[in-house]
Write a structure and sequence with these properties.
With 131 residues, the chain is mainly alpha-helical. 84% of the residues lie in helices and 0% in strands. Helix 3 packs across helix 4.
Length: 131
Amino acid sequence: MTKRIKAYMAYMDAMLTENTSGLSYEELCVQHEKQLAFFMHERLVHEFVMLTFAILAFAVFFLMYVAFHPELVLLFLALMVLLVPYIMHYFLLENSCQYMYRQYDELQKKIHPGAFLPDDNEAVINAHKKA
């Protein structure tokens, strides 16, 4: 999923710079909305999974505090091993969706000159391109 998100954002950045896709900006906007909806759904699913693992880890930690058993330590460590990558992946999804919102604003600006575009939007996209 990480490769797909990064590849799609790079593709859309390229289309915002110079549209070589053969699609109009309106068609690109429709495509972008569909991709954004897909990534937002993925983000929501991972948020629920991440929260579930966090609640389970907290519950096991609480049980270890109340009634210590070595098996609980192993269970807690296993949950933490799963939780940390879920947190990292969720933040990738969240930050990517936020970036795609800015790309959507840029598309709207190309379709409708004078459309809403926050002042810092272009600076954020340019900074992302350099990174």
